[in-house]
Amino acid sequence: MIEFQAVRKEYDNGTVAVHELSLSVQSGTITVLVGPSGCGKTTLMRMVNRMIEPSSGTVLVGGADVRDRDPAQLRRGIGYVIQQAGLFPHRTVLDNIATVPVLSGASRRAARTRAGELLELVGLPQHLGSRYPAQLSGGQQQRVGVARALAADPPVLLMDEPFSAVDPVVREGLQDELLRLQGELDKTVLFVTHDIDEAIKLGEKVAVLRQGGHLVQYAEPDDLLAEPADDFVTSFVGRDRGYRRLSFVDSDGVRPKPVCTVDLGERTQPNPEWRLALDAAGRPRGWLPPGTGVDGPLTEDQLVAGGSLYTEHTSLRGALDAALSAPSGLGVVVDDDGRYVGVITARHVLDVLDQQRGGVP
Ligand SMILES: Nc1ncnc2c1ncn2[C@@H]1O[C@H](COP(=O)(O)OP(=O)(O)OP(=O)(O)O)[C@@H](O)[C@H]1O
Ligand SMILES: [Mg+2]
């Protein structure tokens, strides 16, 4: 869908931002460009919609050389999302989203109706449509930015560090949302970040760039972690790559075991075991430490907060994290609806990993 052929960009001051780089981005996938600040990511991305012209080489979109396209028309087929969302401050949220369809000739009314649907698609309530960007949180603005980029239903989406200005929790939500959206929309997404964790989470393929606009490795995330091409990639993917790679190991073989449970609202005698407190829907709420009993009905403020929850059949990384973060050392396993299934220990998770590797010698 997007192809860079020996693309080079040298700015007027002699800076070589991109060095004869070739890369092809498959249609219908999220491809991530990752690398340290100044390595040429933004420059490379902006050559796709002709905001920057290459010094030499060719960029193809959908098989056609972008030089043969009218820039304004080209950009209507390419959504563009940037850091801080870049919304127009004096237009309401709905008008921001409707911008491109109106430019392309849609009636204001049709464009606003569509904008309302897009608000919902990116997980925002309708009443935000009449606000101005400054009246939204950073995460909400970012969602509006995504909605605006999707408004013309472009086959290609360029996203330049769209989530880097929001806090880590909101950021994770936005990442999950993008993955969900992509599952529905099947766009070709070129996504820039300098955060390797974000790259690994979002990218079906990840291109690692280094200073001077050199492409060092282009691979699926699992391969990047398993076999970094050189010392630069090794240091860039970081020291926990063994742990992070667990994200790609499926957790078939993890067998949750039962643990003592108590229901909120119940009276309970002291007990020598860690006990997991469940609410009326069977969802875990926290732990009752060994030796603790309660006089009256059990309430949440009598509990020790639990660790992360592990949703069954997701990756081993989540399973191990649940075990390591639980005060009891027992990671809580839940089903898709968040209901208690059982518990696992870190030892058990590591045994599953050893078995998958073909057993311990
Ligand atoms: N208009 C310009 N004129 C001269 N040099 C530029 C220009 N724009 C960018 N550069 C230089 O080109 C190199 C690549 O810049 P670019 O913005 O593509 O990097 P980046 O990887 O996006 O960095 P960051 O992660 O900080 O956004 C940098 O050294 C930058 O200083
Ligand atoms: Mg940049």
Automatic annotation (TrEMBL):
EC number(s) on file: 7.6.2.9
Keywords: ATP-binding, Nucleotide-binding, Transport
The keyword ATP-binding is annotated on this UniProt entry: yes
Pfam families membership: ABC_tran, CBS
Family indicated by similarity: Belongs to the ABC transporter superfamily.
Species this chain originates from: Saccharopolyspora thermophila
One MF annotation (Gene Ontology) recorded for this entry: ATP hydrolysis activity
InterPro entries: AAA+_ATPase, ABC_transporter-like_ATP-bd, ABC_transporter-like_CS, CBS_dom, CBS_dom_sf, P-loop_NTPase
Protein name in UniProt: ABC-type quaternary amine transporter
Domain ABC transporter per the UniProt entry, residue ranges: 2-237
Enzyme class at the top of the EC tree: translocase
